[in-house]
Amino acid sequence: QVRLVESGGGSVQAGGSLRLSCTVFGISYCIYYMSWYRQAPGKEREFVSNINSDGRSTYADTVEGRFTISQDNAKNTLYQQMNSLKPEDTAMYYCKTTRCKSWGQGTQVTVSS
What we know:
This protein is mainly β and 113 residues long. The protein is 0% helix and 52% strand.
C-alpha cells in the first residue's frame, strides 16, 4: 500500500516563493511518473506539472517558467519549487503517483496581493 504526504504549503505575498514536498511511503517505485495538481475553491482540479522516469518534465502554461518540478529518488520525494507566485496560484496542491494510482492529502498555498 502506498501513501503520499505533502508539505511545504503556506501563505506568502505575491512575488514570493514556496517549495512543496511529497514523500512516497510504502512502495518505492511509485516515485516514478509523478505529478502535481491544484484545485482552487469552486474550480476543478487542474494539472500543474509532471516528471517521468528519465527526468523529463512538463508544465501547464500558467506556471511555465515559474515552477520547477524535481525528485530525489533516494529520498522517495517529489518537489515543486514555486517562484514569482501570483494570487491566482492560490489553491490546494496535490501530488499524484500515476504508476500507483494514488493521491496525497493536499497542502494549501495562499498568495496575497
